[in-house]
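Structure ticket #2291
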Amino acid sequence: MKKIFLTAVSLALLNLYGCVKQQSTDEVFPLENHQIDAVNSPASPAITPILAKDRIVSPDIYQTDSAGKTEVLREGRYTLVNISPEEGQKYLLDQSVTVDMLGKKRKSISATVEQGLHAALRESGLSLCSSMGANDQGLSTLFYLPLPKVHYQFGPMALRDALQMLAGPGYEMTVNDVTRIVCFKQRPNVPKPISGEKQTIETTTTTVTEIIED
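Resolution: structure written out below.
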């Protein structure tokens, strides 16, 4: 009797194991079929992002006549502040520079014209071209000339005038507005000094003396 009972239990366990195994096998096949369908299915079309086009800013301060047009901002009740760019900010050669190569100690130095040009261009946003590989041999000659003592200290002065002054009448100045590089080329003919009487400008100085009584 026990044998028959054990045999029946064993058969029941075998049947249960077979059902579980069959169920596990059935669950695997759908995953494999799903993977095969994913491989064989056509690829989804690529989505191209829409890129915004650049627009030109208007008005353009370099193509608009701003003469006589000043934009101001009111600060407080009685104060108007100019918010339009100055000429020296729009055109870098119009900015004013002050050069002092001697320093506070007034030390004696021996500088070249190239060093003087670099001093004038310092923090101006413009750079000096290199004489290396230049087609104009006169550029190397200019850069290695000794800087005159009268050019060690000057200003405030417009940067355009300062650079031409340092180079002298034998050279004309060029500028690349894209690279912001300033350079010089030798003139075919040195211009003669401009003759004419200088205008006399009258100036009035007023001194106010304040007397404080004890």
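Closing remark: Residues 131 and 139 are 6 Å apart (CA to CA).
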